[in-house]
Amino acid sequence: MLTYIGRRLLQFIPVLLGITVLVFLLLHMIPGDPATVLLGQDAPPDEVERIRNILGLNEPLYVQFFVYLKQLLQGDLGQSIFQDQSVYSLIMKHLPATIELAVFALVIALIISIPLGILSAVKQSSWIDYVSMFFAQLGVSMPVFWMGTLLIIGFSVNLNWLPSFGRGEPLTEAFSTLVRTGNLYDIVQSLRSLLLPAFTLGIMSAALITRMVRSTMLEVLKEDYVRTAEAKGVGTLSVIFKHSFRNALIPIVTIIGLQFGNLLGGAIVTETVFAWPGIGRLVISAISQRDFPLVQGCVLVIALMFALTNLVIDILYTKINPKIQQR
């Protein structure tokens, strides 16, 4: 197992290197530069050049890249140009909020998609199946910002049930307060602030997972061993969950793992709509300010987390199907 994990980790190195090169080149191709943004459009040219020299922006592009790569190999993500903090500290400050949002969004997606996908497969071609697939198609088609705006108008502006923006106390701290004092207020407020952005972020994943669960279950339900179990008089629930869903898990685990990675990277729009203080909103701010080190650090961390998510999926694969490890 350790050999398998080590081999998979080695495969991530060229992927991360490729992402680093691509992001570095794209950032330096977009119009504008940090010195002009930092000093303003009316700044004297001499002062702009002085700042560019300080930031190393007048060096050839390949020199800038190798300086940055050297810093990365030393475990240094660099210093933010516009904020008096290291890139690492800024990312660690905002990353927990994104992870909390992505995890909660995935939980919502699974609560919706797995029962809906199974029910749709079992009741194939019924009104339940058609309604489920309609909502799945709607979830895939609707833009995230539009979904978020509708939810804000409905549940925050009109009904005034849930807050429209911002983050409450982190769930870990709210849960700690609950354990210490027995006071539910903090955790209720945290969940209220989390519900709308998590639902907005998770609804597309729910739609994709629903379709995957349905298609996989339809294939498994046609297998001979399922029909044999039904002929032997095995209970319906046992046929569905023990014989069918259990054997459909491999592709479902894949799509769930990939969706979690997508949730981490796709939180940018959701965090912007709901003013959620996560890494996605940090990326948007850094791009608008041309804060190259901060953008590069954020994208690299997101890519690393996506790679680690894929590693966890591979490990789960080997537990579900040990033959995969032998390939």
From TrEMBL:
Residues 95-317 form the ABC transmembrane type-1 domain. It is a multi-pass membrane protein. The keyword Calcium does not apply. The keyword GTP-binding does not apply. InterPro entries: BPD_transp_1_N (IPR045621), MetI-like (IPR000515), MetI-like_sf (IPR035906). It comes from the Bacteria. It is found in: Cell membrane. Keywords: Cell membrane, Membrane, Transmembrane, Transmembrane helix, Transport. The chain crosses the membrane at residues 12-30, 101-122, 134-157, 194-213, 248-274, 294-317. One of its GO terms (cellular component) is plasma membrane. One of its GO terms (biological process) is transmembrane transport. Its main location: membrane. Belongs to the binding-protein-dependent transport system permease family. This is Peptide/nickel transport system permease protein.
